[in-house]
């Protein structure tokens, strides 16, 4: 409609441009001048080129690191897809705030700050919000059960994306490198549904054991998700539709964070929640230029999603934990920092 106000999502997507190919070529020429055999440092040199292109700088910096852990709950837990109860999400948020979780330990090792965002936790976290210990972007108290209908409305999907964009905008002035993290019991189910839809694969191809399902539980999870896709019919050509029908609020927020950071030419590391990265790439293909895959997990869906995004992970440590741990593992951070320093010397 003429004169209709643009949404924050539209404004953000319109600001995202492909990475700087001229700077990438300049970096390539610089690396070819080093007194080593051609491309002897392999992926480190690829990463150095990527950093130059992302930042439009021959001296990029990744010193100031923020890990945004997006938290949300999922109605599909009622269908028995997880070994753990939904209440664990609230307790894990409290662990993050108390610096008692795995991501906190790893973040301390690499000098990163952990920022927790309530995108849709099915619990009252108002006291943490009031004390400034979390960023409150709650869309609702968890998604609906997408085994019975859409996970959320289109308006809620847009709200979750814009929540992530707002977080990126809020932190951008003090952040050179964003790590993406997630927390939400049952969130491997929407992730599998998103990956299957956007990568055009079967649910069986992309669904793993999550937190340790046995064979019977895994078979039941696959059947539940297959039926959910048949019921909801998400459109693989429309990332917003996929998010609304089978996604999660924290997944939308991760996608929004990626888009918001890309619009400001800030580097995004980790992509541990590749479902969010797939949504972001579906909405704006140029956003892929600003993503770095920190690691590859043991989940087969993660392998397929990274392949679809054309991302080669820095590490493969057989991780199976979310929170942002893959992007912020000490080895991954040292890898990225070394590539940057060696290239800039």
Task: Provide structural commentary.
- This protein is α/β, with parallel strands linked by helices and 345 residues long.
- It has a single domain, classed as Nicotinate-nucleotide-dimethylbenzimidazole phosphoribosyltransferase (CobT), large domain (Rossmann fold, 3-Layer(aba) Sandwich).
- The chain has 15 helices and six strands.
- The protein has helices at 8-15, 21-32, 43-55, 87-97, 102-110, 126-130, 154-171, 188-198, 203-206, 215-232, 239-246, 249-263, 274-283, 300-309, 330-344; strands at 65-72, 112-120, 135-136, 177-183, 267-270, 291-293.
- A six-stranded parallel beta sheet has the order 3-2-1-4-5-6, sandwiched between helices.
- The longest helix is centred in the middle third of the chain and has 18 residues, at 154-171.
Features:
345 residues; alpha/beta; Rossmann fold; 6-stranded parallel sheet; 15 helices; 48% helix; 10% strand; globular
């Amino acid at each position: 409609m003429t004169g209709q106000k643009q949404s924050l999502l539209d404004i953000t997507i319109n600001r995202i441009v492909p990475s700087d190919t001229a700077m990438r070529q300049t970096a390539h020429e610089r690396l070819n001048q080093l007194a080593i055999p051609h491309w002897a440092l392999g992926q480190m040199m690829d990463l150095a080129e990527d950093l130059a292109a992302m930042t439009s700088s021959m001296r990029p910096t990744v010193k100031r690191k923020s890990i945004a852990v997006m938290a949300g709950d999922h109605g599909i837990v009622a269908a028995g897809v997880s070994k753990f109860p939904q209440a664990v999400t609230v307790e894990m948020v409290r662990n993050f705030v108390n610096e008692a979780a795995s991501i906190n330990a790893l973040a301390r090792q690499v000098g990163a700050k952990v920022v927790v965002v309530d995108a849709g936790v099915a619990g009252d976290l108002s006291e943490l919000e009031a004390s400034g210990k979390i960023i409150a972007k709650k869309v609702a108290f968890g998604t609906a059960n997408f085994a019975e209908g859409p996970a959320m409305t289109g308006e809620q999907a847009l709200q979750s994306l814009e929540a992530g964009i707002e977080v990126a905008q809020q932190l951008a002035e003090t952040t050179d490198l964003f790590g993406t993290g997630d927390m939400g019991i049952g969130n491997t189910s929407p992730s599998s549904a998103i990956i299957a839809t956007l990568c055009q694969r079967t649910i069986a191809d992309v669904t793993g054991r999550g937190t340790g399902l046995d064979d019977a539980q895994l078979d039941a999870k696959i059947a539940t998700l297959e039926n959910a896709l048949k019921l909801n019919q998400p459109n693989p050509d429309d990332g917003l539709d996929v998010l609304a029908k089978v996604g999660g609020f924290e997944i939308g927020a991760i996608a929004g964070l990626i888009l918001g950071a890309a619009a400001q030419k800030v580097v995004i590391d980790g992509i541990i929640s590749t479902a969010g990265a797939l949504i972001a790439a579906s909405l704006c293909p140029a956003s892929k230029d600003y993503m770095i895959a920190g690691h590859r997990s043991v989940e087969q869906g993660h392998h397929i999603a990274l392949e679809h995004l054309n991302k080669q992970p820095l590490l493969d440590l057989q991780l199976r934990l979310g929170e942002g741990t893959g992007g912020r593992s000490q080895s991954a951070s040292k890898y990225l920092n070394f590539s940057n320093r060696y290239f800039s010397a």
